[in-house]
Amino acid sequence: MTGSAAPETPAGPHQAAQAGPPAPGKIIAVHISYESRAAERGRRPDAPSYFFKPTSSLASSGGQAARPVGTELLGFEGEVALIIGTPARTVPLEQAWGHVGWITASNDLGLYDLRSNDKGSNVRNKGRDGYTPVGPQLIDARSVDPSALRLRTWRNGELVQQDTTAGMIFPLAQLVADLSQHLTLQPGDLILTGTPAGATVAVPGDVVEVEVDAPETPGAPSTGRLITHIVEGEGSFDPALGSGPSVDDHQREEAWGSRAAAGLPAREETPDDDGLTDHTTGTVTETATSPTAKPTEPSATSGSALTAALREKLERVPVAGLAQELRKRGLNNVAIDGVRSQRPGTTLVGTAKTLRFVPNREDLFTSHGGGYNAQKRAFDTVGEGEVLIIEARGETGSGTLGDILALRAKARGAAGVVTDGGVRDYAAVAEIGLPVFSLGAHPAVLGRKHVPWDVDVAVACGGATVMPGDIIVGDDDGVLVLPPDIAEEAADAALAKEAEDAWVAEQVAAGHPVDGLFPMNAQWRAAYEAQEHRG
C-alpha cells in the first residue's frame, strides 16, 4: 500500500520476519458474511458474493469522507480487512490463511442514494474517493487465530458495532480460498470481509471509528482506531451525464439497518418481498426522487372524508358543540386532554398524521434517536392540511418539537401540531404562526425523556386514540378526534345546534327566563321552528 492510505506496521516480534505490504492492485469486498448481519437483514446467503472497489477510494485514518450535497444516506460499515502476503491461485482451504500477510481495520463507506442503477456493482456508491479508509496499523496474520478477531465500530464515541470473526457465516480462510478459484490474489490486494449488525448512517459532523483486535492473543494486538470524519461535500450531479441520487423507504431501511432505526412504520412482508440483497446484489425497482426531495408518501387527506366543504363547516363549528354531538353518538373518549393552544383564538382543522415516542432508554436512543429518525421523518413528510399528532405519554419533562421542526411543518403546509408533551423554543414556535397545541413549554431536548419510534401508526395522545387519517379539530376549548365516517353528520348537527343556541341566547338577552327555554320545551321549540321557517 502506498501514499497516505498505507497503514503503519506496528513494531513487534513479527515485523522483522515479514516486510510491509505493497500497494494493492485490487480491493475486493464481501456482501453479507456475518450471522448477525444476516439476521438483521432477514436473509442468509448460501455462498459468499463479492464486488470490487477502486484503489482510488483508499483513505487513511484521520481523513474525511464527503456526503455529496443533496444526498441523505451515507452508510458506514466497520470491517476486518485482509491484506494478501503471497500470491494465491486455486489454493485449498487448509492452506488459504497462509497467503494472508496482514490484518487491518477498514470502513466500507457507501452512498445508498446512488445504489439504484448499478445493480450490485456498487461502482458509484462505494467507489467514491475516500470511501475505503483503512488502518491505522497492521496485525501480522501469523500471530492470531483468524476465528478470534474482534471488530468494533463507534459513531461519535458510541459503540454501534461489536462482533467477532467466530460469528461469521464464511470463515476468513474460506473467502481467500473461494476467491482464489476465480482470480489470482496478488500481494497487497485487500479483501474487505463484510460487516456485522449495527452498520448504519453517518451525517456531516459525525466521527466514525473502527478497530480490529485479538483480545485473546498474548499482547492483544490491535490495529488501533481507524478514524473518519464525515463532512458535507460540494458540487452537484449533472443529470445529463447519468442517473443521479434517488432514495426510497427501502433504501432507508437498508442504510439504517432496520425500518425502526430509519423511523419507518412496520410493514408486512410477502413471500416474494425479498428486498435487495446486501449492497444491491439483486435487482430492484425503485421510485426515484430528486436529490433533495423526500419520497412522495400517501397523504391522509387523499381520498379522505375531509372535503373542502366539510373543512369549511368544521372551521365554523365550536369544538364544544362537536363534543356534545359525539357524546350523543356514544363517543366519550375522543378528547385529547390537557393540550392548549399557544395563541388564544387559534382554530385547528386537519387530518391526522401520527408520530409515536417511547420512553427513553439509552441503548434505544443510540440506535433510534440519531440521524434521520422517526421525528425528522414525520416533520419532513407531513402533508398539506395534515395535523401532526405526537404521542408523548403526557410527559412534560422535555420538548417534542422546537422552532426548526415547526418551520418545516409550516413550510410543508401542515394544518398544525398536537402533542401531549412539551415544546422547546416556545416563544419562537408561537411566532411562526403554526397552530401548536401542547402541555406547555420545556427547554430540554428530546433524548431526556423520549425515543422517536414510529410514524403513521395508531397513537395515544392525551388519553385519546388517534388513527392516521382521523379528522382533528381544535380551538380554545381543546382538541377532538373525529372518526371520518361520522364527521359530516356531527358537523351538520353541531352547526344546527349552534344556530338554535344563538336563537336561545337572543331570547335570554331579551329578558326571558331559561326555565323551559334552555333546553327548549315544546312551546319554545314551536316558536323556534316557526322563526326558522319564516327565515
TrEMBL record:
The keyword Membrane is annotated on this UniProt entry: no
Matching entries from Gene3D superfamilies are given as:
Fumarylacetoacetase-like, C-terminal domain, Ribonuclease E inhibitor RraA/RraA-like
Looking up InterPro entries in the UniProt record yields: Fumarylacetoacetase-like_C (IPR011234), Fumarylacetoacetase_C_sf (IPR036663), RraA/RraA-like (IPR005493), RraA/RraA-like_sf (IPR036704)
Q: Name one Pfam family in it.
A: FAA_hydrolase
Q: Where is the signal peptide?
A: none
Residue ranges under compositional bias (Low complexity)?
Answer: 11-20, 278-292
Q: Where is the Fumarylacetoacetase-like C-terminal domain?
A: 28-213
Output compositional bias ranges, type Basic and acidic residues. Answer: 247-256
Q: Which UniProt keywords apply?
A: Hydrolase, Metal-binding
- Its Gene Ontology molecular function terms? hydrolase activity
Q: Where is this region: Disordered?
A: 1-23, 235-304
The family database entries (SUPFAM superfamilies) matched by this protein are listed as: FAH, RraA-like
The source's domain of life comes to Bacteria
Q: What is this protein called?
A: Fumarylacetoacetate hydrolase family protein
Specify the species.
Nesterenkonia aerolata
